[in-house]
Write a structure and sequence with these properties.
Helix content: 25-40%
Shape: globular
Organism: Acetobacter cerevisiae
Largest sheet: 8 strands, mixed
CATH class of the largest domain: Alpha Beta
Strand order of the largest sheet: 1-10-7-6-2-3-5-4
Oligomer: single chain
Number of strands: 13
Structural class: alpha/beta
CATH architecture of the largest domain: 3-Layer(aba) Sandwich
Number of domains: 2
CATH topology of the largest domain: Rossmann fold
Number of helices: 12
InterPro entries: NamZ, NamZ_C, NamZ_N
Pfam families: NamZ_C, NamZ_N
Protein name: DUF1343 domain-containing protein
GO molecular function, one term: peptidoglycan beta-N-acetylmuramidase activity
Radius of gyration: 21 Å
Distance between the termini: 35 Å
């Protein structure tokens, strides 16, 4: 018989970490003999970065554990194996290593998601995916959607915590306007949320899941040992495994909250190069002029140089682009949101009305605020833009504080 569901929002206590590194939730589950999984038919939401300190996949560990019955695997954006580009996922298939069905749950919501979970036959769902600390990185919204489904199905959920790679000292940037909700932002949180996935799960469950479903999910959490809020990923002693194809390094994750906003413009964000989100460019601007303008505007902890590059992916495939390289010189003083706003302001000035992608809707969904684009069109600079979200950010910071684990 399946073990009893955990009481809503239980948290395993933190312990002293291994010498020199953080111990992630997955490792604590493993070293504890997988106790919360015993008696369950287990499903796991995982991807290519869901590994332990020996770089072994959680799926392989669960499959090899005699006491664990691994029933199903669920893949997010890019797929369980991480083989697909942005906006795509791997189709349902059978995993050759475990024999388990790998279900595609990217963008699945409501009845469609509930039907997949019921079809899988699981009695416990585990989430173990590395986030990047940005609202529009979609894995946290796969978690959100699964929490909604779990609440309605009475299916227990176990979240294994991992570091916020860009530190968790504070939240910054615009808070999502609920009218702009999409799969790059389901709920009103700050663009740089400053939380771990387990902390987000606690917030989601207590505020948004309960509000939308009338009940909380049966949520259990295994936190990390030794993680501190001022840690960047490089401070954790862990090995970075890219959680998505264009997130090759922790540095990419650090600039991402600001430079990914250019996905809503006519500029390239460097996909298909060795420097995604660090290179930005267009065939319609002079990169040297842009780099000089950004430098003159002044962005703490960063420098800019002009670069030429050719993307290998659509929509800029085989097009020579001129732009700039965002070089982080001091990660502690670097502010990705302020830097992003400065680059948007100077880039919009140089590109003119051709700056936006389509109608601008994509940018609005990414930023979470329609007024930013309006003010940029009027020539606003970064300080004026920041004033737009001060009040909402203060409210989110207060709300966030309640759910922090570290």
């Amino acid at each position: 018989m399946p073990a009893q569901a955990a009481t809503p929002q239980t948290v395993t206590p933190c312990q002293k970490p291994p010498a020199g590194r953080v111990k992630i939730g997955f490792e604590k589950l493993r070293d504890g003999g997988y106790a919360p999984l015993l008696g369950h038919k287990v499903g796991v939401i995982a991807n290519v970065a869901s590994v332990d300190n020996s770089l072994t996949s959680i799926v392989d560990c669960l499959h090899q554990a005699p006491s664990v019955q691994l029933q199903a695997i669920f893949g997010p954006e890019h797929g369980f194996r991480g083989s697909m580009r942005e906006g795509f996922s791997e189709p349902e298939t059978q995993d050759p290593d475990t024999g388990c069905t790998v279900y595609d749950i990217y963008t699945k919501i409501g009845d469609a998601l509930k039907n997949i979970l019921k079809k899988s036959g699981i009695t416990l769902l585990v989430f173990d995916i590395q986030d990047t600390g940005s609202r529009f990185y979609t894995y946290i919204w796969t978690l959100f959607d699964c929490m909604m489904a779990c609440a309605e199905l009475g299916l227990p959920l176990l979240v294994l915590d991992r570091p916020n790679p860009i530190s968790g000292l504070d939240a910054s940037g615009p808070v999502l306007d609920p009218r702009l909700a999409s799969f790059v932002g389901r709920a009103p949180i700050a663009l740089r949320h400053g939380m771990t996935v387990a902390e987000l799960a606690r917030l989601f469950n207590a505020v948004f899941v309960k509000k939308q479903t009338g009940q909380k999910a049966s949520l259990d959490i295994i936190p990390m040992d030794g993680w501190q809020r001022d840690m960047f990923f490089e401070d954790t002693g862990l090995t970075w495994c890219p959680p998505s194809p264009n997130m090759p390094t922790p540095l990419t994750a650090l600039v991402y909250p600001g430079t990914c906003l250019f996905e809503g413009t006519s500029f390239s964000v460097g996909r298909g190069t060795t420097m995604p989100f660090l290179y930005l460019g267009s065939a319609a601007v002079d990169g040297r002029t842009w780099a000089e303008a950004a430098t003159k505007a002044g962005c703490a902890g960063t420098a800019f140089r002009d670069v030429w590059f050719t993307s290998l992916v659509d929509p800029f495939k085989n097009t020579l682009l001129h732009g700039l390289h965002c070089v982080v010189t001091d990660r502690t003083s670097f502010d990705p949101i302020a830097t992003g706003m400065t680059l948007l302001s100077t880039g919009r000035h140089l590109a003119g009305s051709s700056f936006w992608r389509g109608t601008g809707k994509t940018f609005d969904q990414l930023s979470g605020n329609t007024q930013i684009r309006t003010l940029l069109d009027k020539g606003a600079e970064a300080p004026a833009l920041a004033a737009l979200w001060e009040k909402d950010l203060a409210s989110f910071r207060a709300l966030r504080q309640t759910f922090l684990l570290y």
